[in-house]
Amino acid sequence: MKELIICEKNIAARRIAYILSNGKLKQGRIYGIPYYYFNDSVVIGLKGHIKKLDFPKEYSRWTDITPKELIDVKPIKKLIDRKIAMAVKNLAKDATRVIIATDYDREGELIGVEILDLLPKNIEIKRAKFSSITPIEIKKAFENLEEVDYNLAKSAEARQYIDLIWGASLTRFISLASEQLGKDFLSVGRVQSPTLALIVEREKEIKEFVPKPFWKIKVKFEKDGKEFFAEYPDKIWEENKAKEIYEKLKERNKGIVENFDKKLKEDLPPHPFDTTTFLKEASSIGFSAPQAMKIAEELYMNGLISYPRTDNTVYPSLPFKNILKKIEKIFPKEVKEVFKMLREKPVRGKKFSKDHPPIHPVDAREINGAHLKIYELIARRFMATLCKNDVLEIKKAEINVNGIKLVANGIVIKEKNWRKVYPSKVEEKFLPDLKEKEEINIVEIKKIRGETKPPKRYTQGSLIVEMEKLGLGTKSTRHEIIGKLYQRNYIRGKKIVATPSAFAVVNALRRGAEIITKPDMTSLLEKEMDRIAEGKKEFEEVVEESKEILKKAFEILEKNEEKIGAEIKEAMNKQNYFGKCNRCGSDLVLLKSSKGKRFIGCSNFPKCQNSYPLPQKGNVVFEGDYCKKCGAPVITIIYKGKKWKKCVNMNCG
Length: 653
Hints:
alpha+beta; 18 helices; 23 strands; globular
């Protein structure tokens, strides 16, 4: 039997061919596309989707059809890689069986199904399902082939249809209304817009936040030459009350212990990595969500970790000790420690699914740079989930000073197990052992004024967690959505800040059709797509329902088109304003050359030809500062997580 094996990418094809042939593969090329062969098997890798869903060519001119009319235009699948298509078609001619070996998820199933019309009729089609590209799992998958899941592929196709229709029609409407066309168009999307609305709402809360003062009373005690602290248990909102408590405490130089409690508490290791918690932790060590996912996918393709797109936090039966022995090559000390403190069963999270296991290492080889950092994060998390609980000693004392009750807390790590291999901070506090009715000396009393703090800005990690909570996007798409928001200049910085254009677009959509900015509708459609995958709902039904929701939104949007356009124009002018011209006093604005390069130019051109070049990478922001030497604007540059200021005048020195 001659068989053709279709993989998602060339790197996966080469590795799978190597495993199945026991290293005896040969390589060929057809139409410039590499393929691998051994015995009667041929393996070829695609480049992801070889077809793209789009509107017919006659609808590509934005002004030829209204955005609302676009909703009822039927999209078509366009071939985007003819060479791969020709290669697959040619290699399939002599095959009696085709095995789809793309990633086992919605997108992977659709990528595999998209090539079926290139195959000879009546050819046998099978599916290989695996969660890691390791010899054991690949051989097992090919020995136990399954059927293609057409419902799963249809659910992915439904997402494509709905996202294209929503994204294209709304993007055209907003961009045309605000005259932001060409490369400067303003994108709007089914998941993108409610996600952006979250960030804008958080920014509004921060800007409108009014701090409220409060007071804390802190007392330093001493016992046997060692000092510790106790506090008045509540924040005090009235200064007079704080002063009254403070003065009353000052009347005494000793406190009496009323209660003392000491206990040991077992502290569980963190649960195994699903995609959301992995991206959150990667964000905390300096990786953007798209960057972390890209590296994880490469580690998976190279057979070093399991599939990185998963909602699962419960391990299936895995060869845990074998995996530990493999990663011992890179982490010898840590693995030795893990074997000393193995728990009976790995720790479990609350989310369980049958498609893929939690993210974990499956093999180890010498790697470096960013790949090593991500691999180490995954390996250490895996090791921690296999370790015994840490043991914390928790102490609490209630101390009476002149009728006022103070509370002292102590915490120390008594027995460190999983924290030996996985970093997790515990703020240890010293508190000595005390006895009831014992008198202890007061060293110092402090009345400290504080203020309530505004909510924190989102990081990419915390935003992904919030998106998951609200049902925005999927484990496979959330990092891509955040990446798009950065690309479209809607957001900036590691601690995410919304730009004026983000405020304008979200405010305009809220005024026009608030449903577009709410997570409820998007979450509902995600559930409907799940029902397609489960075979409980038809593709056409879900697509039509989404169209009806969108049409109702457009009825309101079109009535407010003029106001929406004016508001966005005003915001874009604000975003593109770079101060006053130091030659003529007119506005300096952000412009683009005929070659697409950005620069700052005077709005009084051609009378004033003052202009300044700008760095072409990263975000540039004017924050109101001018150079003290030459008077030109000082810009803030944000690139790859770094932020610095410079005068735009290159001749200033």
